[in-house]
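Q: Sequence in, structure out?
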Amino acid sequence: MGSETLYSKTENSMIFIMTHQELVLGIDIGTTSVKVVVVSKKTKEIVARQSKDTQANVPSDLGIEGNKQDVPKILSAVHNCVSRLPKDLLRQVIRIGVCGQMHGVTFWRNIEKSREEGIFKLEINRDQVSNLYTWQDGRCDPEFLKSLPKSKSHLAIHTGFGCATLFWFSRNKPEKLNKYDKCGTVQDLVVSLLCGENEVKMSTQNAAGWGYFMTEENQWDKEALSKGNFPLRLLPSKILKPGENAGKLTKSWFGIPEGTAIGAALGDLQSSVYALLKDSKDAVLNISTSAQLAYIHPTFKPKTNLESGKIEYFPYFDGKYIAVAASLNGGNTLAAFVKSLQQWTLELGFSVPQSKVWDKLIALGKEDSAINDMKIIPTLLGERFAPEQTASVNGITLDTLNLGQIFRSLCSGIIKNLHDMMPQEILKQMEISRIVGNGSGLVRNIVLQKEVSRWYQLPLELGHSGDAALGAALATL
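A: Exactly. Output:
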C-alpha cells in the first residue's frame, strides 16, 4: 500500500507490521462525485483512494435556468468515502487538503459544536444550510449581468459565480438570504465543519472564482458591491493564500487524529493542474463535465491584458497565475448526443444501454476514415463570453451521414471550440511543449485524444485519475 511492511511468520499465521509514515488526506468535491485519496508525504504517491457519486442534483424552481444540489448529500458522500479508507492509514494522516468547484455558493447559519462523545460525523442540519447553487446555474442572464456594478477586479463576472448568484438573491429573493449569516463554496463549508469554526476562511482561488475579488489587494471590491446593494454581511471575512492553514480537525475522524491541520479549501482546477504538471512547459487539458485548457503564466499581472477575454487568469500557487480557457461544453455535450441516440432507438422500438452506444461510437469514430469536412459547433450551453450562442452543424452531405463520421465531427468540434479560445499559437508563444490530459471524458475517449493531437500538434500524455484530490493533498504540504 505504499508503506514499508515487515513480515513475521509463525506456525499458524503471518503477521503484517506496517511501519509508521506521514500521510496526507486529499478531498475533491466535484460536480457529480467526491474523490478522496491518501498520499505519502515522502513519495508523493497515492496509497489509497475512494470515490462516490453524490447524486445530489435537485429540481430547481427556475427549471433549466437553475442548477442546484443537496448539500447534506454531498457531505454524506465525503463522509462515506473517508469511512471506507483503511483505518491504519488514516491514523497516520498529518494534514488534510480539500478542493472543489470554485464558482458555486451555499449559505448556512452558525455551526454548533457537538459535545457528544463518539465518532465525528460530517453533517449539518438541513434547516441550517441552503442548497449549493453550482457553476452551471443560469439564473443570471446577460441583461441581469449588465445591470451589475463594474468591478476593479481583472476577472469578469458570469452566471453561476458566487457573487452573481448573491446579487440575484438579494434582488429577487432577499427573504432567502435572511435565513443565513454566512456563505462560501461547498468546500469552504466542509473545511468549516471539520474545523468546527464559524469564521469562514476562503482561499484566494475560490474568492477569485466568485468575481468582485481584487487579487493583488487580496480583498473584495466592496466599493463596487455596495453600489449594487450587495449583502456584504455574508461574505467570507478572512482570505487566505493557497496552502495556508484554515484550522485543525475538531474531533478524531475515523482514526484521523484530533488537531490534524487542515488547509484552506482550494479550486479544483488549480489542484488538478498542481498534481499533473511535471514541467513549466506543460499545459493541462481537462475534459469531464465541462472542458478546460490551462497553463501557468510566469509573468501575468492583473492589470495586464495579454490575451482576449476568452482566456482568464486565476490565482495559482506561490503568487503565480494560471491562464485558463474554460468551456462550458465538454463531456456534457457528448453525453447529450449519446442520450439522444438512446432515446431515438427507444422510439424505434429498441432498447440499447448507454454503455453500448458509447463503445460503438468510439469504435466507429476512431478510424481515420471517420475524418470528414462536417463542422459541428458543439456549444449547447453557450459559453461564458457568449452565453446566447447555440450549437449548429455545417457541411452535411450524403457522404457525412455515417454515425462514426458524425461522432468524429462532434469530438473535433469540442476540441476546435477550445482551440478557438486558446489557439495553438498562444501555446507556442509560451513555449508549451506538451499537453497533459485528464478527466473521464478525455481518458475514456480515444477519439477526443486523436482530435487534441490533430488540432494542437503537440504530444498528449494522459495523467493519473483522482488528480484534483491528489493536488489538494500535495498543495497542503
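DSSP finds 16 helices and 26 strands in the chain.
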